[in-house]
Write a structure and sequence with these properties.
The chain has 9 helices and 7 strands. By secondary structure, it is of the alpha+beta class. It has 3 domains: 55 residues, Orthogonal Bundle (Arc Repressor Mutant, subunit A), CATH 1.10.10; 70 residues, Arc Repressor Mutant, subunit A (Orthogonal Bundle); 53 residues, no CATH class. Helix 4 packs across helix 6. The longest helix has 21 residues. The protein is globular. The termini are far apart. About 6% of the residues have low confidence.
Length: 196
Amino acid sequence: MEELFGTEVSKQDIDDAIETLQKRYEQADFAIEIKAIAGGFQFLTKPEFQSSISLLLTQRAKRKLSKSAIETLALIAYKQPITKSKLEAIRGVSCDYAVQKLLEKELLVIKGKDKTPGRPILYGTSDKFMHYFGINSLDDLPMPEDLSAEDVETAQKQVKLQSQLEDEEGDEFSLFQFQRGTKAIQDKKNQEENND
C-alpha cells in the first residue's frame, strides 16, 4: 500500500475503510455486499437478489461435480489432512477419479505426506474451495452438532429433489447449489441465535 499511495497506510485505517464500505453496501439500495472470504474480501450478490440474478444468467455454473466428488470433497473438508486410503475406508469405494477431478478443479491441494509406511499423500481443501463456498475459513463450515433434526430433514428433502433434477439434467451437482443449501442452514442457525 505504501508503494501504491506514496504514504504509509496502517492496517487499522484499511480495516476501518472496509468496515465503512461494508456498512454502505448493507443498505437496501445495493444488490451487492462485501464479505470476508478466503482471507480477503469480495463483492457478492446479496442472498435476497440471488433468484433475480440467476434468472438473468443463462449460463449454468461452470464447475459441476458428481455426487461422489461432492461426498469426497465434504469428507476432505471436515477431516483434512487425510489420505486417499482413509477416504476410501470411510466411503467404501475407490476415490481415485473423484480426487483427480477435484485436484484438476483446484478445489483440493496436496498438504504433504503421511508418516505411515508408504508415505501416502495427504489431501486438504484449497483457497479456491473457500472462495466457491463463500466462507472465510474452515471454521465457517456447519458442524454436524449444529444441525437440528429439522435441518437434517430439510437436507434430505433437498437431496431427494436434487436427485429428481439430476435425472432430468444429468448426474452432476453444482457447488452453487451445495453452497446455497449450506448457507441456508447456517443463516437459520444464526437467526435463531440472534433471536435468543
